């Protein structure tokens, strides 16, 4: 098996809504292409509030309805992530600022706003945590189209 060609880490605030949803979607899309061995895909959170917990049940419900599995347990971003991953994708400007503050001096990862890949031009992927299931569906669709566009740009 060849070494992975691409490594990406999704980072949102708590790692139970946006980032694990995007991780699951990208894994699903990469698997459909038969390219799992070419990717390292993970997600993490800025904060440590949910470390070790499953994703938000509303997000898990949306993914299940779309046939996408998600077994991720929340974790907090760590300094090694800035060396292990080529790209760290954040969901809003606050995430980017937090990552820049946390970034170690020897970091090699590039930090980008994930919404930059949205073909509709919606750069900020809203956190649905304080919303309802409909807000999670909106977030899912936003993450899905960003994942599709992101993959196109990697080929």
From TrEMBL:
It catalyses: a phosphate monoester + H2O = an alcohol + phosphate; O-phospho-L-tyrosyl-[protein] + H2O = L-tyrosyl-[protein] + phosphate. The keyword Calcium does not apply. Acts on tyrosine phosphorylated proteins, low-MW aryl phosphates and natural and synthetic acyl phosphates. GO terms for cellular component: cytoplasm. The active site is at residues 12, 18, 127. Gene3D superfamilies: 3.40.50.2300. It comes from Actinia tenebrosa (Australian red waratah sea anemone). Its main location: cytoplasm. InterPro entries: LMW_PTPase, Ptyr_pPase, Ptyr_pPase_sf, Tyr_Pase_low_mol_wt_mml, Tyr_phospatase_low_mol_wt. Its EC number is 3.1.3.2, 3.1.3.48. Keywords: Cytoplasm, Hydrolase, Protein phosphatase. It comes from the Eukaryota. This is Low molecular weight phosphotyrosine protein phosphatase. GO terms for molecular function: acid phosphatase activity; non-membrane spanning protein tyrosine phosphatase activity. It holds the Pfam family LMWPc. Belongs to the low molecular weight phosphotyrosine protein phosphatase family. Residues 6-153 form the Phosphotyrosine protein phosphatase I domain. It is found in: Cytoplasm. The keyword Cytoplasm applies.
């Amino acid at each position: 098996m060849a070494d992975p060609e691409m490594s990406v880490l999704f980072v949102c605030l708590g790692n139970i809504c946006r980032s694990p949803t995007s991780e699951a979607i990208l894994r699903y899309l990469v698997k459909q292409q038969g390219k799992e061995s070419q990717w390292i895909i993970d997600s993490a959170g800025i904060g440590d509030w949910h470390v070790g917990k499953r994703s938000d049940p509303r997000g898990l419900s949306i993914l299940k309805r779309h046939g996408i599995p998600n077994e991720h347990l929340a974790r907090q971003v760590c300094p090694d992530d800035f060396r292990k991953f080529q790209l760290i994708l954040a969901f809003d400007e606050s995430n980017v600022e937090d990552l820049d503050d946390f970034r170690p001096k020897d970091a090699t990862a590039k930090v980008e706003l994930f919404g930059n890949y949205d073909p509709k031009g919606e750069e900020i992927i809203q956190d649905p945590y304080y919303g309802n299931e409909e807000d999670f569906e909106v977030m899912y669709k936003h993450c899905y189209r960003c994942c599709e566009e992101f993959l196109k740009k990697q080929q």
